[in-house]
């Protein structure tokens, strides 16, 4: 809900100067400043962008990692929040001084994939497709399956898949029982290889 959202974590970052651009370091679950003309390039770590409606229902706009560009000027949505998922290093630049068509194209492609996933009708198929996309995008191959280091909660998955947290938790439990998924207490998961 909106009432639980806070801008207090804005102070949870440090600045470092490198390569002429200013790097900022943000702690877990901190918010990056999201001025209307400011873009952030993620140097290390993961962020989630989201908005909410007048009833406080959150809509995830994307989950972004190293090399990705985020900012309100790319979405033209208000409100627009950028929240870290773990420790993040990012550089800031004013959007009218920034020119990187490849990053903008990548941003549009990732949004298109996420839109396709959230349009899947059945909640179980939608959540599994989301987990597969996250594993492909942010995971690495192990002997048992694809492991992610994405520290995401059931609530954040639910908001991204457009289901309730209770439904997301039940479906994750079902996937674990089916041997499709292994969920860790560190908010990470492994998509298991078929037996």
List key phrases describing it.
195 residues; Arc Repressor Mutant, subunit A; four-stranded antiparallel β-sheet; disordered N terminus; alpha+beta; 2 domains
For the largest beta-sheet, the strand count, sense and barrel status come to:
5 strands, antiparallel
Count the domains.
Answer: 2
Radius of gyration: 17 Å
Please report the first level of CATH classification, the CATH class of the largest domain.
Mainly Beta
Q: Could you give the count of β-strands?
A: 13
Strand content: 25-35%
Shape: globular
pLDDT below 50 for ≥5 consecutive residues: which ranges?
Answer: 1-19
Number of helical segments? 5
Protein architecture, described:
The structure is a single chain. The chain is of the alpha+beta class. It folds into two domains: 2-113, Sandwich (Jelly Rolls); 121-192, Orthogonal Bundle (Arc Repressor Mutant, subunit A), CATH 1.10.10. It contains five helices and 13 strands. The strands form three sheets. It has a five-stranded antiparallel sheet with strand order 1-2-9-4-7. A four-stranded antiparallel sheet has the order 3-8-5-6. It has a four-stranded antiparallel sheet with strand order 10-11-13-12. Helix 3 packs across helix 5 (165-177). The model is unreliable at 1-19 (pLDDT under 50). Residues 121-195 form the HTH crp-type domain. GO terms for molecular function: DNA binding. Keywords: DNA-binding, Transcription, Transcription regulation. One of its GO terms (biological process) is regulation of DNA-templated transcription.
């Amino acid at each position: 809900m909106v009432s639980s959202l806070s801008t207090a974590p804005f102070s949870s970052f440090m600045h470092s100067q490198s390569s002429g651009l200013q790097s900022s370091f943000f702690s877990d679950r901190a918010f990056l400043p999201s001025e209307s003309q400011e873009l952030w390039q993620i140097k290390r770590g993961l962020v989630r962008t989201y908005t909410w409606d007048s009833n406080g229902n959150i809509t995830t706009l994307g989950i972004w990692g190293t090399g990705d560009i985020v900012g309100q000027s790319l979405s033209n949505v208000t409100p627009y929040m950028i929240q870290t998922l773990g420790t993040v290093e990012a550089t800031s630049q004013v959007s009218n001084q920034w020119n990187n068509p490849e990053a903008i194209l990548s941003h549009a492609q990732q949004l298109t994939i996420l839109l396709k996933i959230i349009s899947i009708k059945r909640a179980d198929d939608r959540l599994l497709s989301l987990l597969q996309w996250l594993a492909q995008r942010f995971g690495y191959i192990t002997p048992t399956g694809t492991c992610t280091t994405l520290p995401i909660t059931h609530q954040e998955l639910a908001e991204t898949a457009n289901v309730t947290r209770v439904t997301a938790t039940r479906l994750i439990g079902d996937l674990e029982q089916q041997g499709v998924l292994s969920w860790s207490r560190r908010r990470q998961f492994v998509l298991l290889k078929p037996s």
